[in-house]
Amino acid sequence: MISIDLTKIKRFKKIKKEVLNRFLHPNEIEEYIKIEKEKKATFLATRWALKECIFKIDNNLYEFKKIHIKKTNQGRYIFEDFQLSTTNEDGYVVAVAFKK
């Protein structure tokens, strides 16, 4: 199965902490705190788009905060047996997820 999601980065510029706790895994929150201010909205939009894709493929993964998306040193996103990819263009994040 394959899933695609398009997310507007601007939506995540003024997000409240309570919302972060609802969709970010605790380790992702730690990572978010450490990144530069101008990269925070893109970080959040990317995680949201990837989690939307994962959920569209597997509805059992409805609690986004339990989905821990990791980023490798090579810049690839990983989560269990999903293949994930993203790109940013004109203020949007496009995410794609694939699972056999």
UniProtKB/TrEMBL annotation:
Any single biological process term in GO: fatty acid biosynthetic process
The keyword Transferase is annotated on this UniProt entry: yes
The protein's name in its UniProt record: Holo-[acyl-carrier-protein] synthase
InterPro entries from the UniProt entry: 4-PPantetheinyl_Trfase_dom (IPR008278), 4-PPantetheinyl_Trfase_dom_sf (IPR037143), Ppantetheine-prot_Trfase_dom (IPR004568)
Keywords of this entry: Magnesium, Metal-binding, Transferase
Domain called 4'-phosphopantetheinyl transferase: residue spans: 3-97
Segments crossing the lipid bilayer: none
GO MF terms held by the record: holo-[acyl-carrier-protein] synthase activity; magnesium ion binding
Source superkingdom: Bacteria
Source organism phylogeny: Bacteria, Bacillati, Mycoplasmatota, Mycoplasmoidales, Metamycoplasmataceae
